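Researcher: We're teaching a course module on how sequence relates to structure. For the next exercise, students receive a sequence and then see the predicted structure as C-alpha coordinates, so they can try to spot secondary structure elements on their own. Here is the exercise chain.
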Amino acid sequence: MDVLNPRQRSHCMSQIRGRDTKPEIILRKALWSAGLRYRLHHQVTGKPDVAFPRSRVAVFCDGCFWHGCPVHSVSPKTNSSFWKTKIEKNRTRDERVTAMLRDEGWTVIRFWEHDIKSHPVKLAGHVKRVLRKVTRRGREP
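Model: And here is the predicted structure for the students to work with:
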Protein backbone atom coordinates (compact mmCIF):
# COMPACT_ATOMS: atom_id res chain seq x y z
CA MET A 1 0.00 0.00 0.00
CA ASP A 2 1.18 3.51 -0.82
CA VAL A 3 2.29 5.53 2.21
CA LEU A 4 1.28 8.77 0.50
CA ASN A 5 -2.23 9.96 -0.19
CA PRO A 6 -3.19 10.52 -3.86
CA ARG A 7 -2.51 14.26 -3.70
CA GLN A 8 0.97 13.76 -2.22
CA ARG A 9 1.77 11.01 -4.75
CA SER A 10 0.62 13.25 -7.60
CA HIS A 11 2.91 16.03 -6.38
CA CYS A 12 5.88 13.64 -6.10
CA MET A 13 5.31 12.30 -9.60
CA SER A 14 4.96 15.80 -11.05
CA GLN A 15 8.46 16.62 -9.80
CA ILE A 16 10.11 13.92 -11.91
CA ARG A 17 11.99 15.55 -14.77
CA GLY A 18 12.14 14.34 -18.33
CA ARG A 19 15.44 16.03 -19.08
CA ASP A 20 18.69 16.83 -17.29
CA THR A 21 18.32 13.73 -15.13
CA LYS A 22 21.24 12.47 -13.03
CA PRO A 23 22.12 9.67 -15.48
CA GLU A 24 22.03 12.15 -18.39
CA ILE A 25 24.34 14.55 -16.58
CA ILE A 26 26.75 11.74 -15.63
CA LEU A 27 26.94 10.60 -19.26
CA ARG A 28 27.30 14.13 -20.60
CA LYS A 29 30.21 14.83 -18.25
CA ALA A 30 31.92 11.64 -19.40
CA LEU A 31 31.35 12.53 -23.06
CA TRP A 32 32.69 16.06 -22.52
CA SER A 33 35.76 14.70 -20.70
CA ALA A 34 36.35 12.37 -23.65
CA GLY A 35 36.53 15.45 -25.88
CA LEU A 36 33.14 14.95 -27.50
CA ARG A 37 30.95 17.96 -28.22
CA TYR A 38 27.23 17.39 -28.62
CA ARG A 39 23.80 18.96 -28.75
CA LEU A 40 21.16 18.49 -26.07
CA HIS A 41 17.60 17.47 -26.90
CA HIS A 42 18.18 18.11 -30.61
CA GLN A 43 14.97 18.77 -32.54
CA VAL A 44 14.85 15.47 -34.38
CA THR A 45 12.49 12.50 -34.07
CA GLY A 46 12.33 11.38 -30.44
CA LYS A 47 14.41 14.31 -29.14
CA PRO A 48 17.49 12.30 -28.11
CA ASP A 49 19.11 13.19 -24.79
CA VAL A 50 22.43 13.75 -26.58
CA ALA A 51 22.87 14.22 -30.32
CA PHE A 52 25.76 14.52 -32.73
CA PRO A 53 23.90 16.08 -35.69
CA ARG A 54 26.84 16.22 -38.09
CA SER A 55 27.49 12.49 -37.63
CA ARG A 56 23.78 11.72 -37.21
CA VAL A 57 24.24 9.81 -33.96
CA ALA A 58 21.50 9.96 -31.31
CA VAL A 59 22.05 8.83 -27.71
CA PHE A 60 19.22 8.03 -25.29
CA CYS A 61 19.52 7.53 -21.54
CA ASP A 62 16.75 5.10 -20.58
CA GLY A 63 15.68 5.04 -16.93
CA CYS A 64 15.38 1.55 -15.49
CA PHE A 65 11.88 2.13 -14.08
CA TRP A 66 10.41 4.21 -16.90
CA HIS A 67 11.64 2.01 -19.74
CA GLY A 68 11.25 -1.41 -18.10
CA CYS A 69 14.86 -2.48 -17.63
CA PRO A 70 15.04 -6.30 -17.68
CA VAL A 71 17.56 -6.21 -14.81
CA HIS A 72 16.23 -3.54 -12.43
CA SER A 73 12.61 -2.84 -13.30
CA VAL A 74 10.31 -3.30 -10.32
CA SER A 75 6.57 -3.61 -10.77
CA PRO A 76 4.78 -1.12 -8.50
CA LYS A 77 2.44 -2.64 -5.92
CA THR A 78 -0.24 0.02 -6.32
CA ASN A 79 -1.99 0.86 -9.57
CA SER A 80 0.00 -1.94 -11.19
CA SER A 81 -2.18 -2.23 -14.30
CA PHE A 82 -1.66 1.48 -15.04
CA TRP A 83 2.11 1.20 -14.63
CA LYS A 84 2.36 -1.99 -16.66
CA THR A 85 0.51 -0.28 -19.54
CA LYS A 86 2.54 2.93 -19.16
CA ILE A 87 5.91 1.17 -19.24
CA GLU A 88 4.85 -1.02 -22.16
CA LYS A 89 3.80 2.10 -24.11
CA ASN A 90 7.19 3.67 -23.32
CA ARG A 91 9.00 0.58 -24.64
CA THR A 92 6.86 0.52 -27.78
CA ARG A 93 7.52 4.23 -28.35
CA ASP A 94 11.28 3.64 -27.86
CA GLU A 95 11.24 0.92 -30.53
CA ARG A 96 9.23 3.13 -32.90
CA VAL A 97 11.53 6.15 -32.39
CA THR A 98 14.64 4.00 -32.91
CA ALA A 99 13.22 2.60 -36.15
CA MET A 100 12.19 6.05 -37.39
CA LEU A 101 15.60 7.56 -36.65
CA ARG A 102 17.36 4.68 -38.41
CA ASP A 103 15.08 5.20 -41.41
CA GLU A 104 16.15 8.86 -41.38
CA GLY A 105 19.83 7.81 -41.50
CA TRP A 106 20.68 8.15 -37.81
CA THR A 107 22.69 5.74 -35.69
CA VAL A 108 20.87 5.19 -32.40
CA ILE A 109 22.56 4.31 -29.11
CA ARG A 110 20.53 3.50 -26.01
CA PHE A 111 22.04 3.15 -22.55
CA TRP A 112 20.34 1.92 -19.38
CA GLU A 113 20.47 4.14 -16.31
CA HIS A 114 22.33 1.48 -14.29
CA ASP A 115 25.05 1.17 -16.95
CA ILE A 116 25.51 4.93 -17.07
CA LYS A 117 25.90 5.11 -13.30
CA SER A 118 28.31 2.14 -13.23
CA HIS A 119 30.48 2.73 -16.31
CA PRO A 120 30.16 6.27 -17.71
CA VAL A 121 33.73 6.42 -19.05
CA LYS A 122 33.34 3.06 -20.80
CA LEU A 123 30.08 4.22 -22.41
CA ALA A 124 31.69 7.49 -23.53
CA GLY A 125 34.39 5.39 -25.18
CA HIS A 126 31.71 3.37 -26.94
CA VAL A 127 30.09 6.56 -28.26
CA LYS A 128 33.50 7.78 -29.43
CA ARG A 129 34.11 4.52 -31.34
CA VAL A 130 30.66 4.71 -32.96
CA LEU A 131 31.31 8.31 -34.01
CA ARG A 132 34.65 7.33 -35.56
CA LYS A 133 33.04 4.43 -37.41
CA VAL A 134 30.17 6.58 -38.72
CA THR A 135 32.59 9.33 -39.80
CA ARG A 136 34.79 6.85 -41.69
CA ARG A 137 31.75 5.27 -43.34
CA GLY A 138 30.53 8.72 -44.42
CA ARG A 139 33.85 9.49 -46.15
CA GLU A 140 33.95 6.29 -48.20
CA PRO A 141 33.07 6.66 -51.91
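Model: If you want an answer key for the exercise: The helical segments are 6-14, 22-33, 80-103, 113-118, 120-139. The first strand starts at residue 39 and ends at 40.
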